[in-house]
Automatic annotation (TrEMBL):
ATP binds at T60, G61, K62, T63, V64, Y210, R222. This is ORC1-type DNA replication protein. Signal peptide: none annotated. Belongs to the CDC6/cdc18 family. It comes from the Archaea. PANTHER family: CELL DIVISION CONTROL PROTEIN 6-RELATED, ORC1-TYPE DNA REPLICATION PROTEIN. Keywords: ATP-binding, DNA replication, Nucleotide-binding.
Length: 418
């Protein structure tokens, strides 16, 4: 047998399980789509159109519904000579202010007309807004402006105040901007200043989490396309749907789970995606999530984690907060980093407990001694060390902890043990 053989043919076409795949139809969102359609209807009628605000947790279909509605709207407006529609889409994922969003919008508008981009610095905010208004006016008609993940601008929300009022304030004459704001941060919505909320969220559409039945109905058509006949056991899709519904209600999570289960099936050289594969896939994705959670900690967070890993390597867990804090202070001085108060360290620990990285025990030592906390890792020491070894400042310490743990035979456990 050669080194490469054709795969056992689990996947017929992996694309429907890809993040960028656009499904033929949107399932289980009839009510939301109907509201959406009503909100966009005035565009076809050439009437003033309200701004729209979509909100709901991640993976609940806000983006896919918007793409779907806009592509229908674009098609259908083509029937009417007197409707002139343009759409512009900006993802605010890496933008943290109104200024940056305005620059991105200008460049998106200019790009579509083969004009030069403007630089992201060197203009005053007012100047950028003026250029934006000029570009919009030059387009004319109705311009639907989608601001995806708009919550990233935090309270730098001038653009959400200025843009909806551009016409009534006389900054533009020939264009009707319609803003579609999308957010998965409920706090952002609740904290919008009243003046912004009035105009931005004239029409609000909430996208609730999916339940298991809905997720099944979203997964089924994709599963049918993605896998060869008879590859999926009857349990596979329902179990993916159930896991994702229990956890987040996110369609993205359900789809990822199914793909991961398929990949594990392929790797195991098996030709049926069983319940067991789905469970393994769930474990695998959870592990990735924890790993990312660890990577994203701040330097202080890493130092606290490092201190706890040290006690774990010494087999001195659960460890009392006082001892852990002492170790943490030593680690900071070794790293030439400032240390923070014991109270702040406890905050870090409680965050890590929320992330599922550590266990926290409350002890009560009789009336006189009072209460205190003890901590231990809730993830394998091995995976903590992997993260620390990858974090430049901690590499040396991680090596020391690793050999300490080796001396104590504490690194035998494989990641798959938990
Ligand atoms: N009702 C649905 N029917 C079909 N596919 C869906 C549906 N809802 C979500 N999906 C799919 O789930 C994935 C996530 O959906 P989408 O990106 O629209 O979520 P979102 O609410 O915009 O989340 P985020 O805020 O994280 O961007 C996409 O692959 C999308 O195609």
């Amino acid at each position: 047998m050669g080194m490469f053989q054709r795969d056992r043919q689990v996947f017929a076409d992996a694309e429907p399980l890809d993040d960028s795949y656009e499904p033929e139809d949107i399932r289980e969102r009839d009510e939301e789509l109907e509201k959406y359609q009503r909100a966009l209807q005035p565009i076809i009628d050439n009437r003033p159109t309200s701004n729209i605000f979509l909100y709901g947790k991640t993976g609940t279909g806000k983006t896919v519904a918007t793409k779907y509605m806009l592509s229908h709207l674009e098609n259908d407006t083509a029937e009417y000579d007197d409707v002139h529609l343009s759409t512009v889409w900006v993802s605010c994922e890496n933008l943290s202010s109104s200024y940056q969003v305005a620059v991105a919008l200008v460049n998106e508008l200019r790009n579509s007309q083969d004009k030069d981009r403007i630089s992201a610095t060197g203009y005053s905010q007012q100047r950028v807004f003026d250029i934006l208004y000029e570009e919009l006016d030059a387009l004319g008609g109705t311009v639907v402006i989608v601001l995806d993940e708009i919550d990233n601008i935090g309270n730098s929300d001038d653009i959400l105040y200025g843009l909806p009022r551009a016409r009534s304030n006389g900054y533009v004459d020939d264009v009707r901007p319609v803003i579609v704001g999308i957010s998965n941060d409920f706090q952002f919505r609740d904290n919008l200043s009243p003046k912004v909320k009035d105009t931005l969220a004239e029409k609000e559409i909430l996208f609730p989490p999916y339940d298991a039945n809905q997720l099944r109905s979203i997964l089924n058509p994709r599963a049918e396309k993605a896998f060869h006949d008879d590859v999926l056991s009857d349990d596979a899709v329902p179990l993916c749907a159930a896991f994702a519904a229990q956890d987040t209600g996110s369609a993205r999570q359900a789809i990822r789970l199914l793909r991961e289960a398929g990949e594990l099936t392929q790797a195991a050289d098996s030709d049926t995606v069983t319940e067991e594969h789905v469970r393994e896939a769930q474990d695998e994705l959870e592990k990735n999530q924890l790993y990312e959670g660890m990577q994203e900690l701040t330097t202080q967070g890493h130092a606290v984690l490092c201190a706890l890993a040290y006690h774990q390597a010494l087999d001195e867990v659960p460890v009392r907060s006082r001892d852990l804090y002492e170790r943490y202070v030593k680690i900071c001085s070794r790293l030439d980093a400032d240390s923070v108060s014991e109270r702040r360290v406890r905050d870090h620990l409680s965050d890590m407990n929320m992330l599922g990285l550590i266990n926290l025990f409350e002890r009560n030592e009789g009336l006189s001694a009072g209460r205190y906390h003890e901590y231990e890792l809730d993830v394998p020491l091995k995976s903590v060390l992997e993260v620390l070894l990858d974090t430049t400042r901690f590499e040396e310490l991680a090596n020391i902890i690793q050999s300490t743990a080796d001396d104590n035979n504490l690194l035998q456990s494989d990641i798959s043990d938990y």
